[in-house]
Amino acid sequence: MDLTQYAIKHAIAMMWDRYNTPLSLDDIADSAIMSKFHFSRTFRTMTGTSPGRFLSAIRLFKAKHLLLQTPLSVTRIAYMVGYNSLGTFTSRFSRSVGASPRVYRAKSQAGGHALVGGCHVYANDRSR
User: Fold this and answer.
1) What tens digit of pLDDT does each residue of 50-98 get?
2) Which of 16, 45, 62, 91 is the most buried (most CB within 10 A)?
3) Both 43 and 57 in a single domain?
4) Do 9 and 40 have their domain in common?
5) pLDDT tens per residue across span 63-73
6) Structural domains counted in the chain
7) Based on the domain organization, do 31 and 62 belong to the same domain?
8) Which of 39, 37, 30 is nearest to 5 (CA)?
């Protein structure tokens, strides 16, 4: 593994460790010891997405887990996974998942789906 790959992997590990704190592009690029412009280009080349979208995916992954595994309120979960606005969290979650956080949780509780190994699986879909 070359130094660039190592730096990007280090930045990704930092995002997983600190997903619940405010993280700017500068913060993430600094963890890789790169300028934010070089880091953004390199990150996108290696991962296929931007650092911001990658961090958002981590936060939404963690939010799904909390919605399915805890009775915490949607507002509490939004703040726990690093969002400063319930509206921003709800709109990003809905756009990404296809359902609001409350609907996502309700379907799970009704047996509509489960989170298995990080993947969204419908209970009545045997083809997956």
Assistant:
1) 999 999 999 999 999 999 999 999 999 999 999 999 999 999 999 999 9
2) 62
3) no
4) yes
5) 999 999 999 99
6) 2
7) no
8) 39
Which amino acid, residue 57? Answer: A
Question: Residue 33: what are its φ and ψ, rounded to 5°?
Answer: 55, 50
Residue 94, exposed/middle/buried by CB under 10 A (0-12, 13-18, 19+)?
A: middle
For residue 112, the model assigns a pLDDT of 61
Query: Can you give the residue range of the structural domain that contains 93?
Result: 52-128
CA angle 87, 88, 90 (to 5 degrees): 65
Long-range contacts of 4-8 (CB under 8 A, 24+ apart): 4/42, 4/46, 5/46, 7/32, 7/33, 7/34, 7/42, 8/32, 8/42, 8/43, 8/46, 8/47
Distance separating alpha carbons of residues 60 and 66, to the nearest angstrom: 10
Q: Average model confidence (pLDDT) for the chain? A: 88
